[in-house]
Amino acid sequence: MTTKRSSRAVAKSATSLRPHVLVLHGPNLNLLGSREPRHYGLATLEDINLALTRLGEAAGAHVETFQNNHEGALIDRIHQAALDHVDFIVINPAGYTHSSVALRDALAGTAIPFVEVHLSNIYAREDFRHHSYFSDLAVGVISGLGAHGYELALEFALRHLQNRTSHGSQKTEKAH
Ligand code: DQA
After folding, report:
1. Domain map of the chain by residue range?
2. Ligand 1 neighbourhood includes 67 CB (under 6 angstroms)
3. How much is the pTM?
4. What is the pLDDT along the chain (176 residues), one digit of tens a residue?
5. Cα-Cα-Cα-Cα dihedral of 109, 136, 128, 105, to 10°?
């Protein structure tokens, strides 16, 4: 029997082995730079995306970024990512971290491995931010390292995918 993940890997190898990473930003992250800088810093979303795209280029990877303020648009983008054979997702679900079963289900349903990123340390803030609907499905979580957290997540993703290409299919991903 062919699993969903292995059929994706087969389709992938038929197209290209160039790592394909999608970076997703949830609601209000378009305001970065001016939004509550004591929590989120001064880097704009454009600064962050540019740094990630350059990191990807230097590593020979295809890095796409997408921000949206609407749950359905983020869900549709995740579905599209599965059709596009995206290998890995870096996601900051922002406010949806603490509320969205539907966005969680999209990640579980497509089974694309992902790292969850938060600019602020959500555990050092209000109680309602301590629970994430994503963390138990994530390969890992980075919280509180500011914009640098995205770069660390992307570096991890690229290394993870490099191991996959040099050792064949990898088994460190979560079974959803
Ligand atoms: C955030 C933390 C969330 O609690 C908040 O709703 C955000 C941003 C972060 O990056 O620290 O919008 O995900």
Report:
1. 21-167
2. no
3. 0.88
4. 444 444 555 555 544 679 999 999 999 999 999 999 999 999 999 999 999 999 999 999 999 999 999 999 999 999 999 999 999 999 999 999 999 999 999 999 999 999 999 999 999 999 999 999 999 999 999 999 999 999 999 999 999 998 876 654 444 444 33
5. 10
8 Å CB contact between 122 and 49: no
Ligand 1 nearest-atom number relative to CA 40: 11
Residue 93 alpha carbon to ligand 1 centre in Å = 7
Residue count (the chain): 176
CATH code of the domain occupying 21-167: 3.40.50.9100
Active site residues: 40, 118
Q: Is 65 in the pocket of ligand 1 (CB under 6 A)?
A: no
Which atom of ligand 1 is nearest to 27's Cα? 12
> Which residue's alpha carbon is nearest to atom 3 within ligand 1?
94
Q: How far is the CA of 40 from the centre of ligand 1 (A)?
A: 8
**Ligand 1 atom 12 nearest Cα:** 94
pLDDT of residue 66: 98
Q: Where are the alpha helices (DSSP H) in the chain?
A: 4-15, 37-40, 45-58, 71-83, 101-110, 148-167
